[in-house]
Structure formats: structure tokens, C-alpha cells
Design brief:
It is a single chain. The chain has about 600 residues and is an all-alpha fold. It folds into two domains: about 270 residues, Orthogonal Bundle (MetI-like fold), CATH 1.10.3720; about 210 residues, Orthogonal Bundle (MetI-like fold), CATH 1.10.3720.10. The protein is built from 22 helices and seven strands. The strands form three sheets. It has a three-stranded antiparallel β-sheet with strand order 1-2-3, with no helix packed on it. The protein has a two-stranded parallel sheet with strand order 4-5. Strands 6-7 form a two-stranded antiparallel sheet. A hairpin with a 4-residue loop joins strand 1 and strand 2. Helix 10 runs parallel beside helix 16. The protein is globular.
């Protein structure tokens, strides 16, 4: 599409339409204002509701007890405790093991669910995503019901063991590997592997020498993100670890809530920030390599029909196992045992009533406040609170996260511009790894009069959805960003050449393409907000408690009635998140992009 020069800076477009171009200075000014707003709004939001609370809490830990100047003696004091080194060691050990097993099991799953076509593939994709968006408290309850004495796997005596925590972390992060690796594998050009097979390479050698190197950026990116999630696990370790096992995340919570030792919590928060920064650096570099690989891959899906058996070429000869049999069998075992068994056990045990019978008593009790009035609200009221708060948080997360994705999707020509975009990308990802406990407690000590406003946000009812939005923003960015970066910049340049303003370029080019991943972004934001527990446990008032908070309170109260209600409430929350993700997958369809 071209525009021939016309009078007064105008051009002649298609059909003889006169298109008036904006002057260069005016166009640059409009673009500058647009990008300034797009970058300024997220920076202001995260500066006030993330950076300020975190820095304020950490700073309090480094101030001398008498209110004097800077005091770094807290580092020596905290690291002189054997407990600190044990906690750091347990955190790194569970993160390494959880990452290794997630990758080993997730790569075959990525092949089956994204490289192969079969009926029900979309439903299975949604199913394996459900554990990731489940509240960590629900994951802990599901595995506790599976491994506790009298449970289906109680004979293994894994309850409150390190192995139980690692398995639960793999359950939680399996879908991250499947979606990240599968999103690239689905669109990887198959001709290179076919050429290797034609030259006599075995299937394994073709995979090892051709496909695996192409997938390495996606695998490394997935591993770094999984390591981040495993090292910052909170609810899972809190429920399954008992008193023997803990992580930096749970230790920050203990030091803050039980001992009120802000100095120790601040030191541990700094340690966690170092781990987070390292993981995000690796993730950003590998993600950039993965996006370059996506640029070189086919735009449409190159999946093939699932081949479990290869029929013999001689008439009547028996078939032999096909190349898809082993990964399909392994994926089936993972889905049935690792994902299906804990969720199935949680569902089944929710129908067990005191006395050993079966019935709907636990679900009927959801309309009460539990045994001995364990709760301030009923579970159904808490469910209403969760849905209402998650809706507000989703709107905030999608607006702010969408602006972040729009800004960091730019590809400046200058090296300085590229470094600035990379820095912004890393900054906006920090909420993924910083302790939600740190954020929640930081809210309480800073947001009484934010920016000098005459309003106390701690009593306004907006603090919980804001905290949940802060947690969900990075997932919105990771969902929308690949789609925006896949846009051919020549489309924007052509629109600008024809006189379109920056706002119109966005409405006509970026907006319609970004909408492809918007449904999935909304689904992730809503599901994650529904299940957020760390910050919400600090901020939710008794009369506005959410489902995860109510479930954790029921677990901590004695009595079979309360435990049965916790199981039933966990099923309700799991069904809500599963429904949200199924709808999000249907909105996504088979479009590329939108993966972690």
C-alpha cells in the first residue's frame, strides 16, 4: 500500500483518497506522549504498590533498633544462625529437584500435547494447566489428603516429608514446562528433522542432534521460571512441610508474623531478591533466544497426527510401536498419577463424613461458619468475596500488564534503547519472585496515606485486589508479550506512512493482534487472583476473607468437621479455577503465542 505525494504534505491513498500526513515534529511529539503514558502508568502503579512497600519493609530491617542510622549487623546475626543455612539449603535443594523433575516430565508432555494432534487435546491442555493456577493452599491440601495416614498413598509414609514437597512442586509447575516448550515445538519447522531421518538418523539421534538444540532456549527459559516458582513456594511448604521443613519464603512469614523480627525478615528478603534476580536474568536471556527461534519457525502449527503404532508393510504382518508411544505413555502416567490422583483424592475425600460414611454433609456445612465458629464468614460468602475481588484485580492486571507488554514489545534500533527495554522487562517481572508476605506486610506499614492522599487504603477494601493485581501483572505480560513481539514492524510503519496517529496505529494494528491472547491473559489473571494467598492472608479483613484464607483457617482448626469443610471448599475453588482456564483455552484456540 503506497501513498503518492500530494499538495501540503498529503498523499493519495487507495481509490484516490487523500491522506494527510502529520508533520515529523508533531508525529514525534504524539508518539513521545503516547509512549510516556504507556510506560509511566505501570511504573507509577508498581512503584507505589510494589517497590515502595518492599523497600520500606526491607529498610526497616536495616535501621538500628534505637532509631539511629544504617545498621548492617543484622546480616552477621542472621547468617550466624544454623537455622538460616538449613533454610537456605532446603530452599535451593527443593528448587533444583523440583526443576529437574518438572523438565524431565514436561518435555515429553510438550511433545504429545503440542506436536501431536488427537481428539481431546485442548481439554488435556487445560487440565494440565489447572494445577498451576490452583491456590498453593489447595495443592497442599490435595497432597495432604493423598499422603496422610488412611489416604490412598498413606502406606508410603510421605506425609510431612521433603519428598512430598518436591512432588507437589512438580505437580504445580509441570504445566509451565509443557506450555513453554510446547509453544515453540508446535511451530518448529519439521523439515530439518525429516532431512536427518532421510539421511539415516534414528528417531532418537534426530531428536538429540536437530530438535533438542532448537528447543534449548525454551527448555532453559522454562527451567529458570520453574526454579523461581519452586524457590518462592509458600502455601505448599506451609501445609506439607510441617515443623521440619521450610523455605526462605515461609521463614520470612514466620519471622514477621510470629517473632516480629523485621531485621531477620529483611535479610532473608534480600537473599530472596538475589535468587530472583539471578533467575530472571537467565529467563530473560533464554526467552530472547526463544523469541528469535520463533521468528525462524513456521507461523502455523506443524503438529502431526498421533502415531502410537506403525503397521507392518508386509500384508497381514503385525504392527510395531510407533515413535509417539513412549512419550504418550509417560504423559498419560503423569496426567493420571501426578495430576489426576491428587485431585481425584481431594474430590473423593470431600464426600467422606465423620464416622466413616459418605454424603454431602461437608458441602452442606459450607453455609455455616464451621465447628466452634472457626470462621467469621461462611465459605459461600468467602467465595463471593473471592470472585468480586478477583474481578477488580483482573481489570487492574490486564490494563497495567497490557501497557507493560506494549512498551517492552518495542524493538528500538539503538543499543541503549534495547538495554532500556530489557531493564524494564526485568523490573516488571520482579513481583513474580518477591515474597508475597513481604509485599503484604509492606502494604500495612506504608499505605495509610499513599502519595499524601487523604485516604487510608488499609481500610478502603481496595488493598486486597491491588495486591492480587501486582501478583498477576507479570503473568499477563508473559501471555500478551509474545503475540505483540510477533507483529511485523512493517505493518506499523505502513500505517504511520499513510498518516495514522500513534493511537490509530495501535487500534488498527497492535490491538486486533493482541486481542488474540487477551482471553488467555484474562483467564490467568482471574485464576491467579482467585488463588492468591500470601499477601491476602495479611490484608483480608475477617468479614472479607477469601476462599484460600478460609481454607487455611479451617485446616488450622481442630475437628473433623472443619477438615471436611476445608476439603469441600478446596474442591469448590479448584472447580472455579478449572472453569476459568477452560474458558480461557477456548478463547485462545490454536493461535500461536501467549505462552510463558
Amino acid at each position: 500500500m503506497t501513498a503518492e505525494p500530494g499538495p501540503s504534505g498529503a498523499g493519495v491513498g487507495p481509490g484516490g483518497t487523500v491522506v494527510r500526513r502529520r508533520g515529523p515534529a508533531r508525529g514525534r511529539l504524539a508518539r513521545g506522549v503516547l509512549w510516556g503514558v504507556a510506560a509511566g502508568v505501570p511504573l507509577l502503579f508498581l512503584g507505589v504498590f510494589f517497590a515502595w512497600p518492599v523497600v520500606a519493609l526491607v529498610a526497616r530491617g536495616f535501621v538500628a533498633p534505637d532509631g539511629g542510622g544504617l545498621d548492617l549487623s543484622g546480616f552477621a546475626e542472621v547468617f550466624s544462625r544454623p537455622r538460616t543455612w538449613r533454610i537456605v539449603g532446603l530452599t535451593l535443594a527443593q528448587a533444583v529437584l523440583g526443576t529437574a523433575f518438572s523438565v524431565l516430565l514436561g518435555v515429553p508432555g510438550a511433545y504429545v500435547l503440542y506436536r501431536c494432534r488427537f481428539r481431546g487435546r485442548r481439554a488435556l491442555r487445560a487440565l494440565v494447566t489447572v494445577p498451576f493456577v490452583l491456590p498453593t493452599v489447595v495443592v497442599g491440601v490435595a497432597f495432604r489428603s493423598l499422603l496422610v495416614q488412611g489416604g490412598p498413598l498413606g502406606f508410603l509414609q510421605l506425609d510431612e516429608t521433603f519428598a512430598a514437597i518436591v512432588v507437589a512442586l512438580v505437580f504445580f509447575n509441570y504445566s509451565v514446562v509443557v506450555r513453554t516448550v510446547g509453544g515453540l515445538w508446535e511451530h518448529l519447522d519439521p523439515r530439518a528433522e525429516q532431512a536427518a531421518r532421510a539421511l539415516g538418523a534414528t528417531p532418537w539421534r534426530a531428536f538429540r542432534t536437530v530438535t533438542l538444540p532448537a528447543l534449548t532456549p525454551a527448555i532453559a527459559s522454562a527451567a529458570s521460571i520453574v526454579f523461581l516458582f519452586c524457590s518462592t513456594a509458600f502455601g505448599i511448604v506451609l501445609v506439607l512441610g510441617g515443623i521440619r521443613y521450610g523455605t526462605i519464603e515461609t521463614e520470612i512469614w514466620i519471622q514477621t508474623t510470629q517473632f516480629l523480627d523485621l531485621r531477620a525478615a529483611a535479610v532473608l528478603s534480600v537473599v530472596q531478591l538475589v535468587v530472583v534476580a539471578a533467575a530472571l536474568t537467565v529467563a530473560n536471556r533464554t526467552r530472547a533466544r526463544r523469541e528469535r527461534a520463533l521468528d525462524l519457525s513456521s507461523a502455523s502449527s506443524s503438529a502431526h497426527p498421533l502415531r502410537l503404532w506403525q503397521h507392518g508393510s508386509v500384508g497381514g504382518s503385525a504392527g510395531r510401536p510407533g515413535g509417539d508411544l513412549v512419550p504418550t505413555a509417560l504423559t498419560a502416567v503423569v496426567i493420571v498419577v501426578l495430576i489426576g490422583l491428587p485431585l481425584g483424592t481431594l474430590l473423593a475425600r470431600s464426600f467422606r463424613v465423620p464416622g466413616g460414611g459418605w454424603g454431602l454433609e461437608n458441602y452442606a456445612n459450607l453455609g455455616t461458619t464451621g465447628g466452634r465458629n472457626a470462621l467469621s464468614v461462611t465459605v459461600w460468602e468467602a467465595a463471593g468475596n473471592s470472585l468480586r475481588i478477583a474481578a477488580v484485580a483482573t481489570v487492574l492486571a490486564v490494563v497495567v500488564g497490557g501497557l507493560v507488554a506494549l512498551v517492552v514489545s518495542r524493538r528500538p534500533r539503538s543499543r541503549t534503547g534495547r538495554h532500556a527495554i530489557g531493564l524494564l522487562d526485568s523490573v516488571f517481572m520482579l513481583p513474580l519472585g518477591v515474597s508475597a508476605v513481604t509485599v503484604g506486610f509492606g502494604f500495612l506499614i506504608t499505605l495509610d496515606r499513599p502519595l499524601g492522599l487523604d485516604v487510608d487504603l488499609r481500610t478502603s477494601g481496595m488493598l486486597v485486589p491491588i495486591a492480587q493485581a501486582v501478583v498477576a501483572i507479570p503473568l499477563v505480560v508473559r501471555t500478551v508479550l509474545p503475540t505483540l513481539r510477533a507483529i511485523d514492524p512493517r505493518l506499523r510503519e505502513a500505517a504511520a506512512t499513510l498518516g495514522a496517529s500513534p493511537g490509530r496505529v495501535f487500534r488498527s494494528v497492535d490491538g486486533p493482534i493482541a486481542a488474540r491472547s487477551l482471553g488467555l491473559a484474562v483467564g490467568f489473571a482471574f485464576a491467579v487472583s482467585l488463588g492468591e494467598f500470601g499477601a491476602t492472608s495479611f490484608l483480608a479483613r475477617p468479614d472479607t476473607a477469601t476462599l484460600p484464607v478460609v481454607i487455611f483457617r479451617l485446616i488450622g482448626r481442630p475437628g473433623a468437621e472443619n477438615y471436611g469443610m476445608a476439603l469441600a471448599a478446596s474442591v469448590v475453588l479448584a472447580l472455579l479455577t478449572a472453569t476459568v482456564m477452560l474458558l480461557a483455552e477456548r478463547l485462545r484456540g490454536d493461535r500461536p503465542g501467549g505462552e510463558f
